[in-house]
Design brief:
The complex is a heterodimer of chains A (476) and B (203). Chain A is built from 21 helices and two strands. Chain A is mainly alpha-helical and 476 residues long. A two-stranded antiparallel sheet of chain A has the order 1-2. Classes of the chains: A mainly alpha (476), B mainly alpha (203).
């Protein structure tokens, strides 16, 4: 395959990286005053990259990179989440005098990394993509460098992320050493004739490294601290785009490269899924900070998404991808609501107690927040129920009844703390009212995501189902 | 014959300058001896046919690392006499390390001559017909171009990150404005006066 044809397949990454380099020049000359312009240009770039997704399908660079229905689906989610994280940032940072022109550029470069992750069909592409995404994320976590919590979050994320990278790299080197290739197809061929001890070790280490990136238990320890300390728009970004990318990467490597060893990784995924749903549910109960609570909520949700992968079937993978699609809408909606939590002086408040009586002071915001909470809990009329149903349906279809039943039981634990927030907002005595929301765009985004996860979302099932099924079929 | 002479020359120089790196009284001299050791190691690599590693040794180690060492040594205020004073105390540990290292070397040479490493059977054998700089270049700029460029982006992100997290614009600093300096003409800045005797100078 010629170089031009290969490059044409990587068009979304080319658009984003070239655009990011040009915007970096604009930032160098324009200074921080050009932040808004760069933000809008970045969103436009993400939209163009998203539109270019459908153009090409195929394998590029001798099997290093693959553009298929699966990568397109994941990239569309990643770009949408990245665009929202750019849109909500300027107002938040400007209020603190910390808006820098580099914020949208770092998110763009991180999106390039995430695009590489979901398109990777080689361990090298996987690793470089993951590092590009993570390195930008470490900087974003400590973006408000004068704030000690933000700096702490960045440092913690960096140290633990470096550890996870090391674990992943160790697994990759073992896989390469014992299979003799870094390509997913070659690894699958080598695993086809039985799995040796060395290969098993490699598989376990790769799984552990990736479990860190999706913050599945037992590699979740960093999540609450980093989510709490990082600036809220950055937290919204962490909870959405990189999660989708890492989950898609995990699905692809599990199915594409380790498909013949399904029984070996299945037990790891089942353990991680169960532990994440249980711990994500139980540990969230005592939280008083809304960002920490949403961190545990994301651990919990990743557990549910992993149930789909645990099934190891096309239906299961389609369910996981649908889950991630609905999950990012719910999560971004929740974080948009958290962004509105500002006291009369305009400072951000993060106590759950300050939400008391929100239904009387800000009925619209309370209703939207309640919709997101009910939806995250998976309560039926709302759209959050649908992917949970798909995931458990996939488990039942291969006869994993007991697992599905435990999973449903753990979702009840999770429902407790989601409902507690709704109770705080609707039935407690009003706390001091929040400052009125001044941003029409944020209100619009909240309304949009609330409509998407409301029962109206069921109208999207045929489209979402077809896209996620096509994505899953591309792997099997 | 010339190869043999070159090998012994480089080898003796490496060992000699490495020893002098340790024994030099002045830390700056130590670093200079270290640079000489790097150059001779690069020569050894050239003899072994690994010209790419030879160039890397000079560019990376001499060009960057050793210069960095030199800066650090010159900037830090280290009392080297005090550092040396613990020599007798740490000597047993040092001897132990030497024994372990020597044992490992003997072991490795034994394993090597037993021929069990089977380097010739590796999956990606070294090509004989083209120099290895060319071989690496062909791979990096064709097959692995995508990853090579992405690695460049990773470095760019690291650079942006360092600037975002540490750069601050300090107020009240006088910066040089080259354009304004060049715009200035003699008639704006120079004044010819005929100073009368006995009167003060008007500024």
């Amino acid at each position: 395959m010629s170089m031009i044809a290969s490059l044409a397949l990587t068009l979304p990454e080319l658009i984003l990286s070239t655009g990011a380099l040009l915007l970096l020049l604009v930032a160098a000359w324009g200074g921080d005053g050009s932040s808004r312009l760069i933000s809008w240009a970045s969103v436009a770039l993400l939209a163009i990259a998203g539109l270019s997704l459908g153009c090409a399908n195929g394998v590029a660079f001798d099997g290093l990179y693959k553009a298929d229905a699966f990568s397109n689906f994941a990239k569309a989610l990643v770009y949408a989440a990245a665009a929202v994280s750019i849109l909500i940032a300027p107002r938040f940072f400007e209020a603190r005098g910390a808006m820098r022109a580099e914020y949208p550029i770092l998110i763009l470069l991180s999106s390039v990394g995430m695009g590489m992750m979901v398109s990777a069909t080689d361990l090298l592409t996987l690793y470089v993509g993951l590092e590009l995404q993570s390195l930008a994320a470490y900087v974003l976590a400590s973006f408000m460098r004068r704030d000690s919590r933000s700096a702490e979050a960045g440092l913690k994320y960096f140290v633990l992320g470096a550890l996870a990278s090391g674990i992943l790299l160790y697994g990759i080197s073992l896989l390469y050493g014992f299979t003799g290739t870094t390509q997913f197809g070659g690894v699958a061929t080598a695993l086809g004739d039985g799995i040796s001890h060395g290969e098993l070790f490699g598989l376990v280490f790769v799984m552990a490294g990736l479990a860190f990136k999706i913050s599945a238990v037992p590699f979740h320890m960093w999540t609450p601290d980093v989510y709490e300390g990082a600036p809220t728009p950055v937290t919204a970004f962490f909870a959405s785009a990189p999660k989708v990318a890492a989950m898609a990467l995990l699905v692809r490597i599990a199915v594409d490269a380790m498909g013949p060893a399904t029984s070996s990784w299945q037990q790891i995924v089942i353990f991680a899924a169960l532990a994440s749903t249980i711990l994500g549910g139980v540990a969230a109960i005592g939280q008083v900070n809304i960002k920490r609570l949403l961190a545990y909520s994301s651990i919990n949700n990743v557990g549910f998404a992993l149930f789909g992968l645990a099934a190891g079937t096309p239906d299961g993978v389609a369910a996981t991808m649908s889950y991630m699609a609905v999950y990012i809408v719910m999560t971004l909606g929740s974080f948009l609501c958290v962004l509105q939590m500002r006291n009369a002086a305009g400072d951000a408040v993060e106590d759950i107690a300050s939400l008391s009586g929100l239904s009387r002071t800000r009925p619209g915001l309370a209703a939207a927040f309640a919709i997101f909470m009910f939806s995250l809990a998976g309560i039926p009329p709302l759209f959050g129920f649908w992917p949970k149903f798909l995931v458990f349906d996939a488990l039942v279809a291969i006869g994993l009844w007991p697992l599905a039943m435990i999973g449903i039981a753990t979702s009840v634990i999770g429902a407790f703390y989601y409902l507690k927030i709704v109770k705080t907002m609707y039935f407690d005595e009003p706390a001091p009212a929040y400052a009125p929301s001044a941003s029409r765009m944020e209100n619009g985004l909240i309304a949009l995501s609330a409509v998407a996860v409301s029962p109206l979302g069921y109208l999207a099932i045929p489209l979402l189902g077809a896209l996620s099924m096509a994505a899953a079929r591309a792997l099997f | 014959m010339i190869q043999l002479i070159a090998f012994y020359l480089f080898a003796v120089m490496v060992v000699g300058s490495a020893a002098l790196t340790i024994f030099a009284r002045n830390p700056v001299h130590s670093v200079l001896w270290l640079i000489l050791a790097f150059f001779n190691a690069a020569g050894l690599m050239l003899l072994a046919g690994a010209e790419f590693i030879a160039m890397l040794l000079i560019i990376v180690y001499v060009g960057a690392v050793a210069v960095l060492f030199l800066f650090v040594v010159m900037m830090l205020d280290i009392d080297f006499a005090e550092l040396r004073s613990g020599f007798a105390r740490y000597a047993p540990l040092g001897v132990l390390l030497i024994v372990v290292l020597a044992a490992e070397m003997i072991f490795a040479v034994g394993a090597w001559s037993a021929g069990s490493l089977a380097l010739s059977q590796r999956i990606a054998p070294t090509p004989d017909e083209i120099p290895n700089i060319q071989a690496l270049g062909t791979l990096i700029y064709t097959r692995y171009l995508f990853i090579f460029e992405a690695a460049g982006l990773v470095l760019l992100v690291a650079m942006i990150g360092a600037i975002v997290l540490t750069h601050r614009a300090r107020g009240g600093v006088r910066v040089q404005n080259v354009w304004q300096q060049n715009k200035r003409r003699p008639q704006d800045a120079v004044r010819n006066i005929n100073q009368p005797v006995g009167q003060g100078v008007e500024l």
